[in-house]
Amino acid sequence: MYQNILIESLDHYGRGIAHLDNKVTFVKNALPNDVVDIKITKTYSKYNIGEVLKYHQKSKERIPSPCPFFDLCGGCQLLNLKYADTLNYKLNKVKELFLKNKINYNKDIEVIKNPQNFNYRHKLSLKIKDNKIGFYEEETHNLIAINACLIANQTINEVIQNYQSLNITNGELTIRVNQNQEILLIINSQDKLNINISELKKKVKLIGIVYNNKLVYGQDFYYERLFNHLFKISYDAFFQVNPYITIELFSLILSHIKENNKVLDLYCGVGTLSIIASLKAQKVYGMEIVPNAVLNALENAKLNNKNNIEFFLGDVSQKLSKLKLDVDTLIVDPPRAGLSKKTIDYILKNNFKNIIYVSCDINTLIRDLKLLENKYTLKEYKILDMFSCSYHLESFCFLESIN
Ligand SMILES: C[S@@+](CC[C@H](N)C(=O)[O-])C[C@H]1O[C@@H](n2cnc3c(N)ncnc32)[C@H](O)[C@@H]1O
Question: Does pTM top 0.85 for this prediction?
Fold first, then answer.
């Protein structure tokens, strides 16, 4: 055990940093200026992972966590800070990373706040183990049983509180909800199907259940209305988890599209950004790998009376180079892995006037910005607090061709 250790700063994953025997040690739930006793739980060649055994002095910034599962769950790392401090933490993290990686951006960075920093998630994936529901403790299969999740929408929490009606002993449950509080359940389990649907329907507006990828009740999709547009979303299609920040993202997209733009929207999901861009653009093309998402995108274009959009099904890395499109503005909103080498090469070869890069992973975003920097200047960068209470952040970038 190490005693009376001063926590020096916070790392990019929301962990406290201390130096023990000259080795950097990352400590969960430890804030700068906490003085703590630490037990090392894992040792690696360059760093240690530690755990707080006792707090001797607590940081002035520390607040009591509003979630009783904070210490064990690991899903949210910043619940020991005030909301304003979590936003500062994210801002400083981006500034540090920009500086370290020599990202050429000297303007102030705006952080777009989440108007609802608790109960904002409209999708939650949970584990069910030995008849208990919750999350796995970090890097283990130990289930932390919960009866509510502070960042989940309240109707999702009602499903958690009534999960016994599902009659599942072991498996995985994903709960999706729209702003009408309609619930779609996606279950994977080896257990025999025996859900007490009528019991569940007394508690929530259940609209569908997909069990091991088969529709067993109602419908396997839901609708969401955002930004005055209606989106159909299949059970296996991506949709942003936070509707309150998604409308801010839509606004940013729209304000960066011009009337005569011809837009290519890569990783387009159910067509959201394509449809928003088409409000101004002359022509929009979208590309997405999940078949149901592309079917949704085609239907969503019709639902919203958009007739200037075409969607393509395919893997961006494979299909992109085969398409010959007349496009001046590129939108990319990739998964956390960012852009593949092939996609970067394609972008470098094609002279797009502008690129709108939406990213949920700051590290891969910075890697990609470096690869693009000889041909594109970062004109505008904003943080959107899509994932409040956690160290994750959403970025909006507007790039302009140097030529
Ligand atoms: C972060 S989401 C963005 C979706 C959409 N822009 C939105 O706002 O809802 C990333 C999307 O990329 C899709 N995707 C992942 N890998 C892909 C690939 N190699 N090619 C095409 N689409 C891919 C995912 O299915 C997902 O819909």
Answer: yes
